[in-house]
Amino acid sequence: MKNPIKPKAKLRRTLSVAPMMDWTDRHCRTVHRLLSPNTLLYTEMVTAPALIHGDAARLLRFDPFEQPVALQIGGSDPDQLATATRMGVDAGYAEVNLNVGCPSDRVQSGTFGAVLMKSPDLVADCVQAMIEAAGDVEVTVKCRIGVDDQVPADILPDFVDRVSERGVRSFAIHARMAWLKGLSPKENRDVPPLDYDLVHQIKVDNPDLEIVLNGGLRTLEEAKTHIDRGLDGAMIGRVAYHDPMAILGLAEEMLFGGISDVTAPDVVRAMVPYVDAHLADGGKLHQITRHMLGLFTGQPGARHWKRYLSENAHRAEANSQTMLEALDAVLSVQAQAVAVQ
What is the CATH number of domain 264-340? Predict the structure, then answer.
């Protein structure tokens, strides 16, 4: 696919889209890349055992167009993580990230994710093994500020110290505790209070480390405020997914010093050859368009776009023309809105 803006060569973490299970697959990342060539994109988390013992070719599949894209791995066994890291590096990922932040029951039972905040020495062993396996590809960590009854101001600095001593230079910190008992994964994204100041203090105390803020950021203006205050970058999740034009559609100009005039209709049209190739490979339209439902958020015709795709993209005969028909419905509404003005 042809990218509307030429990306910079160096990997930058000024803005990244958070790894999100069931959301940030390769189809989602392709849509996001059309909007912002410089934003760092992440895979869904994949566990090291799944890569080693499962369908690695499918789990690691991505298109070079998605670059820069990082692989996020879950696990707690240093040897397994080293093997999985080598697989990710061989597949061509620009970064390998260790998940030390996911609070779901599944990751707790597997002793990885946020529960690892309780075992900083184990995390240190894991990242050392990953770094040794990664060669020139950087290994990073995504973590919480603490879990359960931990005191973040005490444990987070110690955690960062121990892990960075083994070679990690970049941390994406979700500025909330994870309460592993009593809250669902969804509640853990919203209920524990945010502590942005603690994340900023980590940067002040570790000026040589790259510190990226995650959690609760809803606009690029908020993200830029924290970057201007001293942090190295911002990681945005659900808002970037549900309203990509408001985040990724403005990122090049607001954060990367470029200019982007890519519109939502531009993205839809650019996705046509991608959709055609996916269908020719046996895929279904809705596997792609489910990640495009938010493209027109806040614009006239957004409801028509979502409704048309929701009603038609699952049909056996659905194809790229179906997507273009949904676009025509949007543009018709927008033309009527302009005519009324």
Answer: 1.20.120.1460
